[in-house]
Amino acid sequence: MTDARGNSRPNGGVPARHTPGTPCWVSLMVHGLDATEEFYGALFGWEFRPGPRQLGPYVRALLDGREVAGMGVLPPDRDLPVAWTPYFASDDVDLTADAVRSCGGTIGVGPLDAADAGRLAVGLDPSGAVFGIWQPEASPGTAVTGVPGTPAWNELTTFESARVAKFYATVFGYDEEPAPSVDAGHVTLRLGGRPVAGVHGVGGALPRERGPHWTTYFTVSDTDDAVDRVLRLGGRLLTPAHDTAHGRAALVADPEGARFAVVGSPR
Questions:
Q1: Distance separating the N- and C-terminal Cα atoms of the chain
Q2: Class (C level, CATH) for 23-136
Q3: b/e per residue, 108-121, with b = 16+ CB within 10 A?
Q4: Which of 50, 80, 251, 253 maximizes the CB count within 10 A of its CB?
Q5: pLDDT tens for residues 216-251?
Q6: Which fold has domain 151-263?
Q7: Could you give the CA distance from residue 254 to residue 249 in angstroms, rounded to a whole number?
Q8: What's this model's pTM, rounded to 2 decimal places?
Q9: What is the mean pLDDT of the chain?
């Protein structure tokens, strides 16, 4: 795992657009938007402003005035999971959607315009994991990274890594870097020589109720303090904080059950 920054600058500079294939946005669809805003506002210091409403009520989360994520309301007539979804940048979302279909994935939403912000589609990879595609116009996506409260990494948990990694590599132009033999089920997806996302095949250890899914990691200044805040705000701890080569991490869930991870700097 590493910081997937695309063209964003740690000092807050905003790029014209993210390199195609770069994770450029994360979005959460929930039932109760007001309560979700309160949770993440208290946890990460986010503020919110209205966003495009093509899919219903939607807000953009801002940190120090810069966009970092989005949140919307699940349509009442759709049985969809409450989950964070990563979006990958594209210069032509329609062509990328065609590539998704030709490589064995499906497109569940779009492609459609999000007002003047850009154009999007939501797809499923061959294993059933949900991801998004974003073609920017007025909004390039996440405008700041590398500071607490911003997305740091996206990791796909699936049954088998090789076939699914090949799907993303073909659609988005990634290079695949298999992990050492001690973790043969893990593949790092690289773009322009740098890691941008991970694919972790866990076989039968994948919970049936979850299925294949992406997990977004958010940077925090102190992982243990962040876990304490999650619990005080009504969330849950799913995997206790533990030290990794990339920092101290923990898997948590918000009050509606959306899973995400928090990761601090290595000690």
A1: 16
A2: alpha beta
A3: eebbeebeebbbbb
A4: 251
A5: 999 999 999 999 999 999 999 999 999 887 899 999
A6: 2,3-Dihydroxybiphenyl 1,2-Dioxygenase; domain 1 (3.10.180)
A7: 16
A8: 0.91
A9: 89
